[in-house]
Amino acid sequence: MKRLFFVIFCFFLLIRPTVALIEVDITRGNLEPLPIAVSSLYHEQGSQEIIQGEKIIKNVGEEISKIIEANLKRSGLFNPLKKDSFLQSSDIAHIKPRFEDWRLIKAQALVSGKVTISENRLRTEFRLWDVIAAKEMIALAFSTTPDNWRRVAHIISDKIYQRLTGEEGYFDTRIVYVSETGKKTRRIKKLAVMDQDGANVKYLTLGNELVLTPRFSPTNQLVTYLSYFRNFPRVYLLDIETGVQEVVGDFPGMTFAPRFSPDGKKIIMSFAKDGNSDIFTMDLATRVVEKITDHSSIDTSPSYSPNGKYICFNSDRSGLQQIYVMRSDGSNVKRITFGKGLYGTPVWSPRGDLIAFTKVHNNRFYIGVMRADGSGERLLTENFYQEAPSWSPNGRVLIFYRETRSDEEGKGFSAKLWSIDLTGYNERLIETETDGSDPSWSSLLSK
Amino acid sequence: MDYLVSIKKILLIAFAAVALTACATQKKVGKQVSAEAEAEVVKSDVYTGQETVEYLATGVPDRVFFATNKSVLTTAARDTLRKQAAWMRKNKDVTVTIEGHADERGTREYNLALGERRANAAKDYLLTYGVSGERITVISYGKERPVNSASTPVAWSQNRRSVTVKAN
Amino acid sequence: MTRSIFLSLLFHSAMIVLTALSLPFMKRMPIDLPPIVSVDLIQISDITNIPFAPKAREVLEKIKKKKERVVSEQAPPSKKKKEKPDRIPLPDDLNKEKKKIVKKKQNPEEIKELIRQDSEFEKKELFDPNQVAALIDKSKVEQAETSKKEKKLTQSNIKKTSFTTGLTLSEEDALKAQIFGCWSLPLGLPYEENLLVRIKLRLKPDGTVLRSTILDHERMNTPGQRFYKVLAESALRAVRICQPLRVPPAGYERWKDLQLNFNANEMLKG
C-alpha cells in the first residue's frame, strides 16, 4: 500500500513542469474606492412622468442613477465619477458602451440602464459593465408601479454592490428609530421608520407617551419597543402595516430591552421587579413565558446569536457592567469582556462571528466589535456619548446614535444617527428631519 | 520506534509547558481587572446640595441622590427617607410614586434597570419604617427625564436620583 | 484475467521506471541552486526602491494616519486568548449556514410582492484572450514611452540575474510597483479567507499581454466562491490597466511566460 502511494506521488512529481516559471507575488494594491461611472438611466421617449403627491418627477432615470451613486458613495467602497466628465450619452452607453471613452475617465465599472413608464408600470433595466475587461457583469430588469422607483434604485444598488464586492448589499432596507424633539428635560419621542438613506420618513406613534428602543422583527413587518403608555413602561409589539399595537406578556412590573429571536417566534427582554432585572423570553404564538437568567444583579440588553443557540447580554453581576454569553436556555453563563472600563449593549452580528458593543472608559464612549468569545476587541469610534449599535444585514456597517454636550438650558444638545463600517474609517451622519436615537436596521426587504 | 517515543515525550512536555504559561497569564489578568474595578467603585460623587430639591411638606425633601452606577443609600438619603416615612405615616391617605433616574453617562437600557433599582432601594427603606407597600408604586425613567440639562459632573450628580411624588 | 494482470504489471513497472528516471531530475534541482551571490544590493535598491506607485503610497500614508486616530487599547488577540479560561466555542454550524445562504443566492433572485423581476440575463463571463490586445488604446502609448525610459535606467542590472526567480530584484520591483498602482483592491473582502489568485501571462516582447489565464479558473463559477471571483476580476483588471508591463528589455524568452500571484490578505488585515 505504502509503495503504491509512493508511486502515485512520484507520478505527480513527474508531470510537474520542470522548467521554473517566473512568479511574482503581488501583495499590495491601491486602497482607494473603486471608480465607477453611473450613467443616467435613459428615459425612453414618450414615457410618462411620475407624480408623487405634489412632486412631479420628470426624469426618473436620472433620479434613480443619483440614488445609486449616493448609495455606492456612502458605502465607502466606490467612487462614483462626476457625470459631466462622461463622454458617451446614456442611451447609447446602454446598448453598446464605448469602453475606451469610459477608460479614459478612469472608470473601472459602468452602470447603464433604461426606464420606460407606460400604463402605470415602471420598467427599469440596467447593466453593469467591467470597463477594463470590456464585458457585461450583470444585467437585470424590474417592473413595478411607478411610485416604487426609489426601491428600484436601492435594489439595483444592492445588485451592483453584490456583484463587485462578493458580499450581499444593504441598500434596500429600512431603519426604525426614535424621533426626538423638544427640551432635553422633557423630550418628545416618536417611533419613526425611514429608508436606509434617510428618505421616506413615516411616524408610527404620535408622541403622547415616551417610546424607546424599537427593534425590527426578522420579517420586517413587526417592531417591538418600550412604551410608557399610561405610565406603565412595557414592551409592545407594533405591526407597521396595520398599525395594530399590543402589550407583550402580562408582567407585574417594567419590561424593557426587547429584541426578536432570529426565527421571529419569540421576544427576549428584561423584566425588572424589586430592583432586580432578569432576562425572559415570551413565545408570541403560545404566550409561554420563560425565565432565562436568575441572578440578583441587573441582567439586560439581551441579543440572540443568528443561529438562535446563544444569547449575549449585559450584566453587572461582577459589580460593574460587563458582557456575558450563555446558551439560549440560560446555562453556561460566561463573561467575555475583561478590558478596562464598562461594556454594554451587546449585539450579535448577522454573520455570527462578531459582537458589537458600547464601551465606557474614562468618561468617553466607544463603539466597538469583538469576536463572540471576547477576543480581538476593536474600537471603531470614540465620542462624548454614543451607544446602541445595530448591524446592517450584511454585517459590514453599524448604525448607532450620538449625543452632544449641552449647557444648563439644554443648548448644544442633539441626538443624531451615525453609521460606521467595520474598518472604522467610513463614519457618516445619517440626516433625519428631527433628532434621532435608538436605530434598528431591518433585514433586506427583497430577498 | 525509539525516536517515536521520544517525540511523544517532547510533545507532552511542550504541552505541559504551554498549559502552565496559560495559568500564569490568567492570574495576572484577574488581578488587573479587580484593581480597575476598585478604582471605579471608590469614586464617591453623591450630590449633597439643595438646588434641585423640592418638598413634599415643610422639612420633607422629595428626593435622594446616588453615586455613579450605584443604588446604595447614603446617610443623608436615609435621613431624608425617614422624614418621608414619618410624613406618610402622618398622612394615611397619601399614595406615592417613586421615580428612579440615572444620569446621561450610561447606556439607555442599563440605565432603565438602574433607575428601577434606585427607586426600589428608596421604597424598601420606606417599608422598613412602617409605610405599607400598597401605598408606593415604582417607576424608572432611566436617563430620559434629567432635572438638569447640563453636561457637567454636578448636573449628572443631580440627575442620579429617586424622587418621591404624590400620586393622589 | 491473466491479460489484465499482465497489463497492470506493465503499467506499474512503467511507472516505477518513470519515477526512477524522474527522481534524479528532482534531486538535481537543489544542486542547480547557485551559491548565494553577494550582489551589491545597495546599488540596486538605489535605483529601484520605489515599491509603491506614488498614488498608492499616498493612500497608504493616509490610511496610516487614520489608523492612528482609531483607538484601541486592547492587547492583540493572540494574548487575549490565554486570558480567558472558558472561551465560548463559536457556533459550529455557522459554516453550514453560510453555505446554505450562499446557495440561495445562486438561484435567480426573486423580488417579493411589490416588485416583480422580468428577466435575468446575466451572461456567463468567458474570458476572451484575443480581445485583450485589441483593447490597448492610444492613451497607453505615452505610458509605453515612459516605461522605455525606465528600461534604460535598469539596464545596468540585467546581467545580475537571480537564478531563483529569473528576474533581478530591480526588475521584479519595477513590475510590482507598476501593478500596485493599477490594482484597485476590492475593499469589502473578508480577510479571514485565504484568497490567492494566480494569473499566468503570456507576454509580447514590449510587455503587452497576449494571453492571461487564471490558474484556478474553475473557482470562478463555483458556488460559495464569490469572493474569489471578485478578487480574480480585480486582478485581471489590474493587469489590463497596467499593460504594457514594465518588463526587462532583453531576455524575452526568460519572462515571456509570467505568473502573478495576487494576495490581498496583508493589505486587508492591516
Account of the protein in words:
- The complex is a heterotrimer of chains A (447), B (168) and C (270).
- Chain A has two domains: 34-165, Rossmann fold; 174-441, TolB, C-terminal domain (Neuraminidase, 6 Propeller).
- With 447 residues, chain A is mostly beta strands.
- Chain A has five helices and 33 strands.
- In chain A, strands 2, 3, 6, 7, 8 and 9 form a six-stranded mixed β-sheet that branches. In chain A, strands 12-11-10-33 form a four-stranded antiparallel β-sheet, with no helix packed on it.
- Chain B has a four-stranded mixed β-sheet with strand order 3-6-4-5.
- In chain B, 40% of the residues are buried.
- The model of chain B is unreliable at 18-43 (pLDDT under 50).
- Chain C has a domain at 126-269: Fusion Protein Consisting Of Minor Coat Protein, Glycine Rich Linker, Tola, And A His Tag, Chain: A, Domain 2.
- Chain C has a three-stranded antiparallel β-sheet with strand order 3-2-4.
- Chain C starts with a helix and ends with a helix.
- Chain C is mainly α and 270 residues long.
- Strand 1 of chain A pairs parallel with strand 4 of chain C, so a sheet runs across the interface.
